[in-house]
Amino acid sequence: MISRNMAYKFDFALEILAPSLVFVAVNCSVWFAIYDYNSLDTLNGFTLEEMLNYQAWNLVVTYMIRSHRSSSLSDDIRLGKITSFLVYPFEFWRYYYSSYFGFQMIQVIVAIITILVLYSLGLITNLSPSSIINGFLFSLSVGVLWCTLEFLAGTAAFWLEETWVFRYVLELTAVLLSGAIIPITFFPEMLQKILVYTPFPYLGSIPIQIFSGTYENDILLAYFSIIIWISIFSYITKIVWKKGVNLYTGAGM
């Protein structure tokens, strides 16, 4: 996985630099315009500097958590490519997660470079070593949850010809409800109370707060919650996978 992603050096360089440049050109411009047009010093408790800092850390969190895709899994099922894995002396999920962890090693490098770029531009103003370390460790843990959710979405290929709708809905829901676009504190109070009992804040808002050093709750409790959510969705995924394999015919080979 590492050698495959770094085989094309120019593409890899663009993967690192392009999102940061787009972030500066688009995201920053939008928030500058919002604050300037409305002559705001603060917006729901966020100054412009704090909002840009929040959005900058969100870019890093996206690299660490939500950049993995299950499209290859869907294609492997639909085209019958998983047949060879079913006869191997190891389960397919081992291969899938091994590929994911290889992918994450690259994303750590990309995230570190992104942090340095955004810091040099003044968009990240606080680089606390403890917050950075805790942010990376927590994001890697949450990344396993996202990988599991992606795997679950990909298994829909056992029943459907195309699964992009499920993957798109998952991605869109995660972006909207995780606080990736706007902080969760901007949401209606009732929705905020509901989101506490879902995994969505862990896919965006909470890792951003940990990176920026503003997380006020017990981080050990956050880790415990992640373990619970991973266990729940892993169990569901295991059941769905077994049912799907029982229906699998190897069509497309």
How would you describe what is shown here?
The chain is 70% helix and 2% strand. It has 253 residues and is mainly alpha-helical. It has one domain. The chain has a two-stranded antiparallel ribbon with strand order 1-2. Helix 3 crosses helix 7 (129-154) and helix 6 (92-120) packs across helix 7. The longest helix has 29 residues, at 9-37. The two termini are 24 Å apart.
Main sheet, how many strands, which sense, barrel?
2 strands, antiparallel
Parts with pLDDT < 50 across at least 5 consecutive residues: none
The coarse silhouette is elongated
Fraction in helix:
55-70%
- SSE string: HHEEHHHHHHHHH
Going across the biggest sheet, name each strand in turn.
Answer: 1-2
Using DSSP, what is the number of strands? 2
Q: What is the CA-based Rg, rounded?
A: 20 Å
Which class of secondary structure composition applies to the elements? mainly alpha
**Percentage of β-strand residues:** under 5%
Oligomer classification:
single chain
Number of helices: 11
Question: Which whole number gives the mean pLDDT?
Answer: 84
The span between the termini is 24 Å
Q: Tell me the count of domains.
A: 1
Topology:
Elements: H1 2-5, H2 9-37, E1 42-43, E2 46-47, H3 48-66, H4 71-78, H5 83-86, H6 92-120, H7 129-154, H8 164-177, H9 189-195, H10 205-212, H11 219-247
Antiparallel strand pairs: 1-2
